[in-house]
Write a structure and sequence with these properties.
It is a single chain. The chain has no helices and 11 strands. The protein has 123 residues and is an all-beta fold. Strands 2, 4, 5, 6, 9, 10 and 11 form a 7-stranded mixed sheet that branches. It is globular. The protein starts with a strand and ends with a strand.
């Protein structure tokens, strides 16, 4: 069993920055991938970024590439999402997710979810 707990959301003005953190408990495998999804009101949950748990391979949605950076600290069992140049369209609930044996590029691939954390970007 894997548990994920997000922190760090909030309200920020357009152009600002936020860091999201996700504390991970439980056992991940060498094949595991962890990452972030987001869901805006009345929209489907969408992929944001992921990182392989035992390598530094990362992937990003085109909408955040160059603005967001995902990273991990295996010693602390944490992953982070540094969000820069935030825009109102980035407003959403952000979810930490873990895929024990797969690529974690769609919501259906996630085996575990955090409870979600709100990010609001004002114009």
């Amino acid at each position: 069993q894997v548990q994920l707990v997000e922190s760090g959301g909030g309200l920020v003005q357009a152009g600002g920055s936020l860091r999201l953190s996700c504390a991970i408990s439980g056992r991940l495998l060498s094949t595991s991938t962890v990452g972030w999804f987001r869901q805006a009101p009345a929209k489907e949950r969408e992929f944001v970024a992921n990182i392989a748990w035992y390598s530094r391979i990362t992937n990003y949605a085109d909408s955040v590439k160059g603005r967001f950076t995902i990273s991990r600290d295996n010693a602390k069992n944490m992953i982070y999402l540094d969000m820069n140049r935030l825009q109102p369209e980035d407003t959403a609930d952000y979810y930490c997710a873990a895929d024990v044996r797969g690529p974690l590029t769609t919501p259906r691939q996630s085996d575990y979810w955090g409870q979600g954390i709100q990010v609001t970007v004002s114009s």
